[in-house]
Amino acid sequence: MRKTPIAAIALAGVALAGCGSSSSSSSSAAASATPATTTTSTTVAPQTAYIAPFQHVKTIASTVPPNGDVNPYGIVIVPSSAGSLVSGDLLVSNFNAKSNNQGTGTTIVQLSPTGKRTVFAQIKAASLPGSCPGGVGLTTALSILPGGYVVVGSLPTTNGQSATAEYGCLIVLDDSGHPVSTISGPNIEGPWDMTAVTQGATTSLFVSNVLNGGAKKGIHTVDNSTVVRINVTSGPGQAPKVVSQQVIVDKIPWRDDKAALAIGPTGVALASDGTLYVADTLENRIISVPDALTRTSPVPDAGITLSQGGHLNQPLGLALAPNGDILTANAGDGNIVETTPAGKQLLARGADAKAGAGSLFGLVPVPGGGGVYFVDDAANALKLLH
To answer: Do the Cβ atoms of 75 and 89 come closer than 8 Å?
Structure first.
């Protein structure tokens, strides 16, 4: 039995809309800048909600690079300039190749807030400097470490189908986009999303995994996905070095899915009190993991259910708002949902009312407030809710 939810909210059914569905991102054409559009809200929210004032969505830029990769998943803001990285720019990882096969995307694009796009990295499996079972298929897991090192997750396939999915790895790039190492092994099995928090000389990577153990034949849902904490050291001229690994939550359900490739734990974010929040996509809930920076064993019962059902509809990307609330992006309906640390859902704001299900993945608040950047894989674009 999982622990009693902090907020008693009715369970909503899971909508099978592709987190990574090829049907949701069939266009590889560059998205052109469009006028701002008015969004819709599914509830009346108090003005204390971070996203309450934001009524419009505008396209910043296409995320499609010259090689035609589609399905933007991961998103991170560059904290400081180094090498090719420009402070305030955004990095976006692509999960699909031009063929639209999932788990075959190889590019990270860099976009300025005004829409300038360059290719930060195009990663070839043959040139990886370490082990990465299956090769390259870049996921939502994307972080920037001290020294300008970029870490990106890989969950590769050969043909876009879950039957050919391999465990992959974390790929470490320098500030010019060149691979310098990989992180793989038994704790990395389908890295799907990630957040990074630096304290002193150590950065803790919190990585959610969706392929632990592989799908057992004849079993549709497997309760063995994890979130692992990987502590690394890095700095200018000092490539990240792994110093410890610890699984901090396990037994999270996942399943392989033809349309979505894999449905399981996705977005992660660490609060100032040391609590890690995790989006449990399959069970329409947000998990809380206390003492995430220090715990030495997995939290029991697949984590504490903070909030479940209600406006949560296949939550994928997860980030913290400046006010400490939890922002999640729904795969099931194209909404961004704001939930308090106490588990109260404040507001669901339509971010892609046109495409709806299957369009959203990674998201991050605008530095200093003023909106939320998010990737829309139905339009293959970086957008701004403002």
So the answer is: no
Q: What is the pLDDT along the chain (386 residues), one digit of tens a residue?
A: 444 333 333 333 333 334 444 333 333 333 334 444 444 444 544 458 999 999 999 999 999 999 999 999 999 999 999 999 999 999 999 999 999 999 999 999 999 999 999 999 999 999 999 999 999 999 999 999 999 999 999 999 999 988 899 999 999 999 999 999 999 999 999 999 999 999 988 999 999 999 887 777 777 888 999 999 999 999 888 999 999 999 999 999 999 887 788 999 999 999 999 999 999 999 999 999 999 999 999 998 899 999 999 999 999 999 999 999 999 999 999 999 999 999 999 999 999 866 666 789 999 999 999 999 999 999 999 999 99
Q: State the Cα–Cα distance between residues 189 and 154, nearest whole angstrom.
A: 10
Distance (Å, whole) CA 282 – CA 261 = 13
For the whole model, what pTM was predicted?
A: 0.89
